[in-house]
Amino acid sequence: METSDLILHLAGPGAQPFPDLAAALRVAGNARAELPGVRLEVVVQGPVVAQLAGDAHNAAEASALAAEDGVTITACRNSLRSAGIDEASLAAGVAVVPAAVAHIARRQFNGAAYIRI
Fold first, then answer.
1. CA distance 110 to 116
2. In the chain, which residues have pLDDT < 50?
3. Within the chain, what is the greatest distance between any pair of CA atoms?
4. What are phi and psi of 14, to 5 degrees?
């Protein structure tokens, strides 16, 4: 299979009835299992970025996924600022982009597939 990029976009409050980080990690795990040659990026935007803090419930699981070859977990800096979260407090391995919307657009312009979680 040709190497391709897949963006999984998690946005919103991260509370029911909306998906949370745990849901995004499950979807990412399923994508890794079914699409072994694909580079995967989970982009987190909105108040749900708080779930990427190093002391959050799923932080260790997010760090483990981010450590896998071909996987990136990205937080939106604008969302972090709005939520009052310092980048230094994020789980290990989480990358930061200035604006998720521009980052996702650029990735799609370059051929990445997009799925909203």
1. 18
2. 1
3. 42
4. 75, 20
Residue 41 near residue 107 (C-beta atoms within 8 A) = yes
Specify the pTM. Answer: 0.94
Give the count of beta carbons closer than 10 Å to the beta carbon of residue 25.
21
Two structure tokens written together for 51: 């779930």
- Closest CA relative to residue 103, chosen from 75, 64, 62, 65: 75
User: How would you classify residue 3: left for phi > 0, otherwise alpha for psi between -120 and 50, otherwise beta?
Assistant: beta
Q: Which residues lie closer than 8 Å to 74 by C-beta, 6 or more apart? A: 41, 42, 43, 44, 94, 95, 96, 97, 100, 103
Single-letter amino acid, residue 2: E
Q: Is the bond preceding 36 in cis, omega lying within 30 degrees of 0?
A: no
Question: Rounded to whole angstroms, what are the CA distances from 59 to 12, 25, 27, 41, 54?
Answer: 18, 11, 16, 16, 5
Q: Which helix (H) or strand (E) holds 7?
A: strand 4-11
